[in-house]
Structures are given as structure tokens and as C-alpha cells.
Amino acid sequence: MRTIEPTTQAENMLKTILLSFFLLVITCNAAVQDFCVGDLKAPEGPAGYSCKSPADVTVADFVFTGFRAAGNTTNIINAAVSPAFAAQFPGLNGLGLSIARLDLAPGGVVPMHTHPGASELLLVVQGSIVTGFISSANNVYVKKLVKGDIMVFPQGLLHFQINAGGRTAVAFASFSSQNPGLQITDFALFGNTLPSSLVEKTTFLDDAQVKKLKAVLGGSG
């Protein structure tokens, strides 16, 4: 009777394990979904948009050309923010990142605001910008940025951008979410229907100041 050597048994067991692992990898790869291009015709939920059928996906879903032209800075803040979030760039859906272009005319400002859903990384590509954020401990971090400089703003913290020169400044802001959200403090306080008496008590401003700001920012009450 032929006896199988222990070494041969070990080799056969190793081959069996490797074959099983190889088959598992093939099966897993077959089930991987490479992307989930957003179906903008469907409602957006907390996790993003539903996926378009792969048969309907084209290269155009992965390309965004909206930054070729500067944003319109003819407005009350002399600034424009042009977003490339999932709603504008469906190929980002489910990937956890997005980007926006910021144009600041001379005297332009993006007022205090927060992004509840993402941290932000700001890269200046033209001009100079004074920017900063306030921590939850009320510590202030402010810096003048010039071309090539980058600053990060942690998720949910108040921050701002101001043109620091005599010509238009341009920057690109990337976010750690496909939909970072935005709440501008000035508009949250004075651009709604919250009664002026309540705004006055919570901001320590007098009635005339509150009503003036509401008139400027479109609020009432």
C-alpha cells in the first residue's frame, strides 16, 4: 500500500486553500460596483441619489466643464461660488467628495458660513484671500493666502473668505462629501421670517439694526 507523505498532504491542502481563495476573489470582484452615477430624476436622500442604470452611463457623467468661465460676482457680496456637487456632477454620487470654484471680485466676501456635512480644503490659484475659521472653543485661525497656498477648514466650523487685493481672486474648494451643505450665518439670522423681536434678543442688536439687515438680506417679520 502506498503511503502519502505528510509533506505531500500539506502541499495538497495549501493548493486547495489557494484555489478556494482565488475563486472567492473572482466572485467578489464580479460583484463589485465600480460607481453609482446619480440619477438626478430621482429624489436625493441622506446617502445620495439612486444609481443610474450602467447601460445609461456615459463618459459625460464623469466630466464637469462648469469651471471654464468665472462666476457672476455682480451681487451684494461681490462673490460667486460655482458648485460641482452631485446635483451638478452626477459622477460624484457615492464617492464622498466634491469641489467648487470661488470667484471674489475686489471687495468681495463670502460671509461666515458652515458646511455641516464636510471638511473643506481651499486652494488659491489667483490673487490673494484673507480667510479663517473659529473653533468650537472660540479660538480664531486667520491667514492671508496667495497663489498656491492651501488652508483646511474642519467640518461644521464657521469660516469666511475675503478678497485681500485689488483684483479678482480665484480659488477652488474641495470637500469630503458629495453634498457638503451650506448655511450662511447672515442669511440664517436675517434672511428668514423669524420675528425681529426674537432676533434682537438672540443677537443683542436693536430693532432698527435688525430690520435694516432683514431689508438687505430679504428677511421679514
From TrEMBL:
* Key words, A-Z: Apoplast, Disulfide bond, Manganese, Metal-binding, Secreted, Signal
Predominant location: secreted
- Annotated disulfide bonds: 36-51
Gene Ontology CC terms, in alphabetical order: apoplast
Which is one Pfam family of this protein?
Cupin_1
Q: Could you say which residues form the signal peptide?
A: 1-30
Q: What residues does oxalate bind to?
A: 115, 120
Question: Which family does this protein fall into?
Answer: Belongs to the germin family.
Q: Cross-referenced PANTHER family, in alphabetical order? A: GERMIN-LIKE PROTEIN SUBFAMILY 3 MEMBER 3 (PTHR31238)
Q: Write the protein's name.
A: Germin-like protein
The organism encoding this protein is Sesamum indicum
